[in-house]
Amino acid sequence: MELAQQLEADIRHRQLKAGDPYLSLTQAARMLGVSSSTANRALQLLAQRKILQRVQRRGTFIGSLQRESSPGLLKRVFMLVHRSYLRQEGLVADGVLVGIQGVLPSADVQFNFLPATDPTEYVDGLIGEILRAKETAGIVVTKVPFVVQRAIRDSGLPAVVHGSLYPSINRLAWVEQDNLGIAKLIADYATAHGCTHVCALTREVMFPGDNVVLRELGRLLGAAGQSAGNYSISHLPDDRHAIMTEVTELIQRHPTDLCLLCRSEAKAAAAIAAIDRLGLKGRRRPRLIVSGLYQRPTGEHPYPYVFPTARPEEIGAAIGRLLAAQVTDPKTAPGHIVVPVELAEG
Asked: Alpha-carbon distance 270 to 240, whole Å?
């Protein structure tokens, strides 16, 4: 967003008009002092705002220096996240931002970082600031504690949860992955490959979607004939040494036909390192499956993974439409979108 603002300021400083040619991707990257991929995302954001027009094989041109009106005249969107989420899912967050901006081209979108400790005071202050302002604003929250979802719900502001709702939270729109579908894909994979024990290496801090996946996975494994003692859950930080230690101990307790569900790629990488260090082969080598991803990984992967079928830009567009609907027709029920998932064998 900051780089897009720099490019927008450059356009105005040079007094460029609609139809004038603008910087190529290489030139924009050089001017901003960033990589081509980063510059490309900034140019893409301005294209969604209609400030730039990118024509294949011809180049980039100035579009309209005045943003189009957003549906419902939504002027600002606040995205509430933890910094750790952006560190782990930076490209995904960029894609969601671009998707929102495509539906709400005139809205200013900004990230607001939740404090590491109790965020109640911060969120209450932000809600008060929005309510006092004269312009219509909406809120998007991702990976937030229960108290944040409750405060957003009670504010009555247009809002969308990117993820699942906590129990007792209602009157909020949300976009989530098919958590029941994730559990079924994992259970089917473990059963088909004869795994006699399944362990979920999950997040240190749990969110509502995690609970749905893990609870349903336990139910499905039980229905397939697994006993309760053959399913376990380990809550772990994304710390390589901690994960390798836990995986080593799991292998010692379950030396054959073990399946590890890794709820992040960092956990999968550490688990593979532990398995390789032990030099395990055949049935003694645990099977890995990764879920919790927000987009399909690129390139080859040494393990199967579950991913959403919608791209981050498509998810962002869905969030933008849900926000706009709350402004144009506030009496409608909050929308709920479930993103289908698939399993890729690597």
From this structure: 5
Predicted structure pTM score: 0.81
Residue 122 has pLDDT above 90, yes or no: yes
Cα dihedral 145→146→148→150 (10° resolution)? 170
> Which pLDDT does position 91 carry in this prediction?
57
Token output for 136: 């219509």
- Cα four-point dihedral sign 66, 313, 292, 167: positive
Per the structure, the count of domains in the chain is: 3
DSSP reduced 3-state for 204: coil
Examine the domain organization and report whether 195 and 76 are in the same domain: no
Are residue 144 and residue 165 in the same domain, yes or no? yes
Looking at the fold, whether 168 and 184 belong to one and the same domain comes out as no
b/e map of 209-234 (b: 16 or more CB within 10 Å)?
bbebbbebbbebbeeeebeeebbebb
CB-CB contact of 112 with 79 (8 Å): yes
Same structural domain, 112 and 227: no
3-class DSSP state of 247: helix
In terms of DSSP H, where are the helices of 49-178? 83-88, 90-103, 120-132, 146-155
Tell me, yes or no, whether 193 and 153 share the same domain: no
Query: To which H or E segment does residue 213 belong?
Result: helix 208-223
What would the pLDDT profile of 148-166 be if each residue is shown by its tens digit? 999 999 988 899 999 999 9
Tell me which residue range forms the domain holding 54.
2-62
**CA–CA dist 308, 93 (Å, integer):** 15
Please give the Cα distance from 205 to 200 (Å, whole number): 14
